[in-house]
Write a structure and sequence with these properties.
By secondary structure, the chain is α/β, with parallel strands linked by helices. Among the domains are: about 325 residues, Anaerobic Ribonucleotide-triphosphate Reductase Large Chain (Alpha-Beta Barrel); about 180 residues, no CATH class. The strands form 6 sheets. A 7-stranded mixed beta sheet has the order 11-2-3-4-5-8-17. It has a 3-stranded mixed beta sheet with strand order 1-12-13. It has a two-stranded antiparallel ribbon with strand order 6-7. Helix 21 runs parallel beside helix 25. The protein is globular. Strand 4, helix 11 and strand 5 form a beta-alpha-beta unit. It is built from 26 helices and 18 strands. About 40% of the residues lie in helices and about 10% in strands. Pfam families: Ribonuc_red_lgC, Ribonuc_red_lgN, RNR_N. InterPro entries: NrdE_NrdA_C, RNR_1b_NrdE, RNR_lg_C, RNR_lsu_N, RNR_N, RNR_R1-su_N, Rrm1. One of its GO terms (biological process) is deoxyribonucleotide biosynthetic process. It catalyses: a 2'-deoxyribonucleoside 5'-diphosphate + [thioredoxin]-disulfide + H2O = a ribonucleoside 5'-diphosphate + [thioredoxin]-dithiol. Keywords: Allosteric enzyme, ATP-binding, Deoxyribonucleotide synthesis, Disulfide bond, Nucleotide-binding, Oxidoreductase.
Length: about 725
């Protein structure tokens, strides 16, 4: 038997039987049967056997499957010992989906794809050895965190660590285009290079002059941002890792840019093929002033980036539209166009209802909470990366006259379910910080100098979380309840505290801080003002019980940390960000990110296989009342939970809103009919803005299919 000729296997059939209620009950035991069958029929007969881990490593090196350099930093005896310790933990996947996803997408296979060359334990071992960079104690700690699934490196890191033939360890990139042909050309080349090595690419086009703006030395006028968008879309389609994955990109435009309506129209279903973008994602940066103008139903002015840069000597992105709005309106040297703010808000809602786009970045909110000197101007493909950038300047040879700073995202995630049982929460977070530090230190994107420069100066990473809904359901806490909000607040406070502690330790060890630390709110201590009040401690009896046994920093602990940071600095400019998570949450057997589940028995369509069903972690008669689908939940509850986490996250959180096309009137008090309207989306966006949310990712709209039957249509079944 081989992986390409499995014959008559039973595990897909057994898994599919979950979706067929028996006597009004969901037969969850069928998933466990599918899991056992998967190992018996697929994994065990198709895994290459070795006498020892040393033999396996020698084979993998000799056949160019893994690199020898990171292995050579350890004695064989230590590797044998660490491998034995990992296996002694007796790790077991808890669902068929978790095991299937790992062996399909992450496990190393032979070149012909016929045989597995590593188990989950082996992938953990190679990750630990690779990220520890020769430090045996750190390797042991990392292995301990990963085998207990308290820490999950992001997919590019977990998948590629130690492999000879691999992509980058980083997850995605952000680049900013300035208003000249050299920058546009260089940015297209950067998009090609970054898409080739893996990861999504975010691009800010707000600095580009609008359609119709003059071009110095030419009789014609500028074509605006839409043709540039088409160039980027074609670039991503071409640079797709030899067809293995679709190149992915998102373009951002400011809501006060004159091309905003043309920008939005590129995603409309009835858009002309000449301007329609099919695979490119759209994002809009929204200053506070827009919310004010829309709320008051006033007209708004769109300002020419060309005239702004000519008048003020700086790119559009670096003008504070909210603060300067009245001045820009009054300035006769600024070319401007007038539209109605509420009509534009409706256009945004229409497009979100139709396509899920655009992402929304509340740019003033992001900068208000930003402790770093400089300006955040955009985000990434998933809207959780929010870091300062500086523009580059190029000459006609496309050489850098002034090298700016762009962004690479180095991500990882905690699993809340397992972190809350960690014997030492602080040690766990400090270990993760060390692993992510290795990723940022070892990343060097030579093909895009602005990315490399930004990474070398900032040493940033984004540690996030997954499994919140799973944890709350397990402890019989309703998602969005006061207890869930308080729990989220304390959990992310602890992540913030311990990443600060370890970043300070690394800065002290290396005698090095991120560039610009001395101008940050960390350096003057003002960042810690809210923490030294001692308000961030569990208050309700329920949350006190949940955090029993975990160290909770008091006011004096924050005071001590503030003084240490002021004295020795921080190594990392940014530390926290919550990504949406994908297949990696299945491997961790938990709900994705910190949003609610969408289905108690989730249905996944897998290529060439058909449907696979994934029951929510710990689904049982006891927990089913606490596993409300996101589509049946008031989205203000989700926003409230995200707002609690945002309080402590120095970057952003991928917040998805889940809505039904037929929206129950009993959920939202303003509804007079069940149909989802643009007004609903506008109200929720404004609610999120007022709660301090920095970004909104997708709007997902669910259309019920009355012909579909099974457990997904009968989620109230007793288990």
């Amino acid at each position: 038997m081989s992986l390409k000729n499995l014959g008559d296997v039973s595990y897909f059939r057994l898994n599919n039987e979950i979706n067929r209620p028996v006597n009004g009950q969901i037969p969850l035991h069928k998933d466990k049967e599918a899991l056992r069958a998967f190992f018996l029929e697929n994994v065990k007969p198709n895994s290459m056997a070795f006498n020892s881990i040393t033999d396996k490593i020698n084979y993998l090196i000799e056949n160019d499957y893994i690199e020898s350099e990171f292995i050579g930093k350890y004695e064989p005896a230590f590797i044998e010992k660490l491998s034995a310790e990992i296996h002694a933990q007796k790790f077991r996947f808890q669902s068929f989906m978790a095991a299937y996803k790992f062996y399909q997408q992450y496990a190393l296979k032979t070149n012909d794809g016929e045989t597995y060359l590593e188990s989950f334990e082996d992938r953990v071992l190679f990750n630990a050895l690779y990220f520890a960079d020769g430090d045996e104690n750190l390797a042991s700690d990392l292995a301990n965190e990963m085998i207990h699934q308290r820490y999950q490196p992001a997919t590019p890191s977990f998948l590629n660590a130690g492999r000879s033939r691999r992509g980058e360890l980083v997850s995605c990139f952000l680049i900013q285009v300035t208003d000249d042909m050299n920058s546009i050309g260089r940015s297209i080349n950067s998009a090609l290079q970054l898409s080739r090595i893996g990861g999504g690419v975010g691009i800010s086009l707000s600095n580009l002059r609008e359609a119709g703006a003059p071009i110095k030395g030419y009789a014609g006028a500028a074509s605006g941002v839409v043709p540039v968008m088409k160039l980027f879309e074609d670039s991503f389609s071409y640079s797709n890792q030899l067809g293995q994955r679709q190149g992915a990109g998102v373009v951002y435009l400011d809501v006060f840019h004159p091309d905003i309506l043309a920008f939005l129209s590129t995603k409309k279903e009835n858009a002309d093929e000449k301007v329609r973008v099919k695979t490119l994602s759209l994002g809009v940066t929204v200053p506070d002033k827009f919310y004010e103008l829309a709320r008051n139903n006033e007209d708004m002015y769109l300002f020419s980036p060309y005239s702004i840069e000519k008048e003020y000597g700086k790119p559009y992105n670096y003008i504070d539209i909210t603060a300067m709005y009245d001045e820009l309106v009054a300035n006769p040297n600024i070319t401007k166009t007038k539209i109605n703010a509420r009509e534009l808000e409706t256009e945004i809602s229409k497009l979100q209802q139709e396509s899920g786009y655009p992402y929304i970045i509340n740019i003033d909110t992001a900068n208000r909470h930003n402790p770093i000197d400089g300006k955040i101007v955009m985000s990434n493909l998933c809207s959780e990366i929010l870091q300062v950038q500086t523009p580059s300047e190029l000459n006609d040879s496309q050489e850098f006259v002034k090298l700016g700073t762009d962004i690479s995202c180095n991500l990882g995630s905690t699993n809340i379910l397992n972190m809350m049982t960690s014997p030492d929460f602080g040690r766990s977070i400090k270990t993760m910080t060390r692993a992510l530090t290795f990723v940022t230190d070892s990343s060097s994107i030579d093909a895009v100098p602005s990315i490399k420069n930004g990474n070398q100066q900032a040493h940033t990473f984004g540690l996030g979380a997954m499994g919140l809904h799973s944890y709350l359901a397990k402890h019989h806490i309703e998602y969005g309840s006061p207890e869930s909000i308080e729990f989220t607040n304390i959990y992310f406070m602890l992540m913030n505290y311990w990443t600060l502690v370890e970043s300070n330790n690394i800065a002290r060890e290396r005698q090095e801080t991120f560039v610009g630390f001395e101008n940050s709110k960390y350096a003057d201590g003002s960042y810690f003002d809210k923490y030294v009040t001692g308000q961030y401690v569990p208050k309700s009896d329920r949350v006190k019980e949940l955090f029993e046994g975990h160290f909770i920093p008091q006011a004096k602990d924050w005071e001590e940390l503030r003084e240490l940071v002021k004295k020795d600095g921080l190594y990392h400019q940014n530390r926290l960000a919550v990504a949406p998570n994908g297949s990696i949450s299945y491997i961790n057997d938990c709900s994705a990110s910190i949003h609610p589940i969408t289905q108690r028995i989730e249905e996944r369509q897998e290529k060439k296989i058909g449907k696979i069903y994934y029951p929510a972690n710990g689904l049982s008669t006891d927990t089913i009342p606490f596993y409300t689908s996101a589509y049946d939940m008031d989205m203000r509850k989700v926003i409230d939970v995200y707002a609690a986490a945002t309080e402590h996250v120095d970057q952003g959180l991928s917040l998805t809103l889940f809505l039904r096309s037929e929206l129950p009137k009993e959920i939202y008090e303003w509804k007079t009919e069940n149909k989802l309207t643009t007004r609903d989306l506008s109200i929720l966006r404004n609610y999120a803005f007022n709660k301090g949310i920095k970004s909104i990712y997708y709007i997902r709209t669910y259309t019920d299919d009355g012909e579909e039957v099974g457990s997904n249509q009968c989620e109230s079944c007793v288990i």
